[in-house]
């Protein structure tokens, strides 16, 4: 059915963006998830892929009154949305499915809560509208495991981020085949400003093949593999991209220089704002023969790109192949969010990634001092 294919495409894009755009905060992810789900409600209503089995959901959330709760899957294993109509705090629903899936309950205030269901399950949901982040869900092992985990966290009061990570990591290491482990991995380790991919990879090592075959883990491990190829210390791949005049720019254009590559796009407000940072850096370092700046745009339209270059007064070299996120250099350097930057040394090795303005200036100072030492050593010989 065409509706099913549309849904799968939308959910794939949604899942990939949320899981791997690590620069956004948890609050931003929360808001964007909610807006995305509401926006797709009409489209997803077409996704009525008939399944051979069913599961039932029954529950009572005190204080919820008369409301609507949405159920949506987190990947293509449950690529549709269902609704739970709440009357006087209670609700009941039979849903079609034929495999164990991870899903979310989406409440009208934007709160999302994970749960799990399989063919033949009788899921019971209990809680209070005042504490939608602490529901008690039973009916199968994953729900009971997660409810127990949440209860343990609640008993800790206000735990630190480190304590939460330790608790989540302990659960993952002790539950190699639980869908809850995937949820906790994403929540406490992946959805961070700077995920520790070595730690994440280690946490997935002992997961069963069944979990590793899940779309999310498969995507995550592929992403980590990409990140490892573009890690600090690795040699950056060859690139050849045209500038506004059509001249092909490559690494040899910056021979014997440290090269700071800035990824941006005219359509991305945050990266447009970040151009101010690079204007300051360029102004400060424009006479530095050992340093160069290169802007790589993810624009798809040449005219829009060139107007943005002019409007933002970007005087350093700019390139774009108008492939957007499909640009070869974007894939090779594992760029997943805008703005982004990568610093290459004169030998083409990656020395820094996603550096702040302060970090860039500190690195440039180190480079300056290193060059001075070299000159001094030469003069002594």
From TrEMBL:
* Location in or out of the cell: Cell envelope
Instruction: Identify one Gene Ontology CC term for this UniProt entry.
Output: cell envelope
Q: Which SUPFAM superfamilies match?
A: Thioredoxin-like (SSF52833)
Q: Where is the signal peptide?
A: none
Domain Thioredoxin: residue ranges: 230-365
| Pfam families found in the cross-reference section | AhpC-TSA, DUF4369
Q: Which UniProt keywords apply?
A: Coiled coil, Cytochrome c-type biogenesis, Disulfide bond, Redox-active center
Tell me the protein's name: AhpC/TSA family protein
Instruction: Write the lineage as a comma-separated list.
Output: Bacteria, Pseudomonadati, Bacteroidota, Bacteroidia, Bacteroidales
């Amino acid at each position: 059915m065409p509706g099913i294919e549309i849904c799968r495409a939308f959910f794939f894009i949604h899942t990939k963006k949320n899981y791997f755009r690590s620069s956004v905060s948890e609050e931003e992810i929360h808001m964007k998830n909610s807006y995305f789900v509401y926006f797709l409600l009409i489209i997803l209503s077409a996704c009525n892929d008939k399944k051979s089995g069913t599961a039932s959901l029954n529950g009572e959330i005190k204080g919820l009154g008369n409301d609507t709760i949405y159920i949506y899957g987190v990947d293509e294993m449950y690529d549709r949305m269902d609704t739970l109509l709440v009357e006087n705090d209670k609700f009941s629903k039979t849903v079609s499915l034929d495999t164990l899936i991870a899903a979310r309950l989406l409440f009208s205030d934007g709160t999302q809560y994970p749960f799990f269901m399989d063919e033949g399950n009788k899921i019971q949901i209990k809680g209070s509208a005042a504490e939608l982040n602490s529901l008690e869900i039973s009916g199968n092992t994953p729900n009971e495991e997660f409810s127990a985990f949440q209860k343990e966290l609640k008993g800790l009061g206000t735990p630190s981020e480190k304590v939460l990570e330790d608790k989540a990591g302990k659960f993952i290491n002790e539950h190699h085949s639980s869908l809850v482990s995937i949820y906790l991995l994403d929540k406490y380790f992946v959805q961070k400003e700077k995920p520790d991919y070595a730690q994440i990879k280690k946490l997935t090592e002992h997961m069963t093949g069944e979990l590793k075959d899940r779309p999310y883990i498969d995507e995550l491990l592929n992403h980590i593999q990409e990140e490892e190829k573009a890690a600090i210390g690795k040699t950056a791949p060859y690139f050849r991209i045209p500038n506004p005049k059509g001249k092909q720019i490559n690494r040899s254009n910056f021979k014997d220089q440290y090269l700071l590559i800035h990824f941006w796009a005219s359509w991305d407000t945050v990266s447009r704002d970040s151009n101010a940072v690079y204007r300051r850096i360029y102004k400060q370092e424009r006479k530095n023969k050992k340093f160069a700046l290169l802007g790589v745009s993810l624009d798809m339209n040449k005219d829009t790109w060139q107007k943005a270059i002019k409007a933002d007064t970007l005087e350093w070299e700019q390139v774009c192949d108008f492939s957007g996120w499909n640009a070869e250099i974007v894939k090779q350097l594992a760029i997943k969010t805008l703005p982004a930057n990568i610093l290459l040394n004169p030998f083409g090795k990656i020395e820094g990634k996603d550096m702040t303005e302060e970090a860039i200036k500190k690195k440039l100072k180190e480079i300056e001092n290193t060059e001075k030492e070299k000159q001094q050593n030469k003069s002594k010989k």
